[in-house]
Amino acid sequence: MAICQGKSTRSPSGARRVANRGKRKSELGRESAETRLGEKTLRKIRTRGGNEKHRLAGDRKINVIDTEGKAHTVEIYNVIENRANPNYVRRNIITKGAIVETEIGNAKVTSRPGQDGVINGVIVD
């Protein structure tokens, strides 16, 4: 079944909207990338205009900016918290905003791994 990112059939008050047209190809969505903690794996996705997007399916490394502004590439041990979905913590799925345990302390993910193809973050106190 296709994922549609078009207008909802319900209005903000809950009333049913009558559609004046059908779905469009430009409104199609895709399954989420669900970047896992594991071996580095990239998937290429063809996007609009024939361009490519690199989806990160799995990775163990994160580029972290410490409190002094210096960048380090360190290993991720575990996912501690993920506000996107509490079940992502158990499954070690990394999204933007997730808190991960690293060699140099806890870090908050600032990039979108499923869109950017890399995991970036900042140290959290």
TrEMBL record:
<dbReference type="InterPro" id="IPR001047">
    <property type="entry name" value="Ribosomal_eS8"/>
</dbReference>
<dbReference type="GO" id="GO:0005840">
    <property type="term" value="C:ribosome"/>
</dbReference>
<dbReference type="InterPro" id="IPR018283">
    <property type="entry name" value="Ribosomal_eS8_CS"/>
</dbReference>
<feature type="compositionally biased region" description="Polar residues">
    <location>
        <begin position="1"/>
        <end position="12"/>
    </location>
</feature>
<feature type="compositionally biased region" description="Basic and acidic residues">
    <location>
        <begin position="25"/>
        <end position="42"/>
    </location>
</feature>
<comment type="similarity">
    <text>Belongs to the eukaryotic ribosomal protein eS8 family.</text>
</comment>
<dbReference type="InterPro" id="IPR022309">
    <property type="entry name" value="Ribosomal_Se8/biogenesis_NSA2"/>
</dbReference>
<keyword id="KW-0689">Ribosomal protein</keyword>
<feature type="region of interest" description="Disordered">
    <location>
        <begin position="1"/>
        <end position="54"/>
    </location>
</feature>
<dbReference type="GO" id="GO:0006412">
    <property type="term" value="P:translation"/>
</dbReference>
<protein>
    <recommendedName>
        <fullName>Small ribosomal subunit protein eS8</fullName>
    </recommendedName>
</protein>
<comment type="subunit">
    <text>Part of the 30S ribosomal subunit.</text>
</comment>
<dbReference type="Pfam" id="PF01201">
    <property type="entry name" value="Ribosomal_S8e"/>
</dbReference>
<dbReference type="GO" id="GO:1990904">
    <property type="term" value="C:ribonucleoprotein complex"/>
</dbReference>
<dbReference type="GO" id="GO:0003735">
    <property type="term" value="F:structural constituent of ribosome"/>
</dbReference>
<dbReference type="InterPro" id="IPR020919">
    <property type="entry name" value="Ribosomal_protein_eS8_arc"/>
</dbReference>
<keyword id="KW-0687">Ribonucleoprotein</keyword>
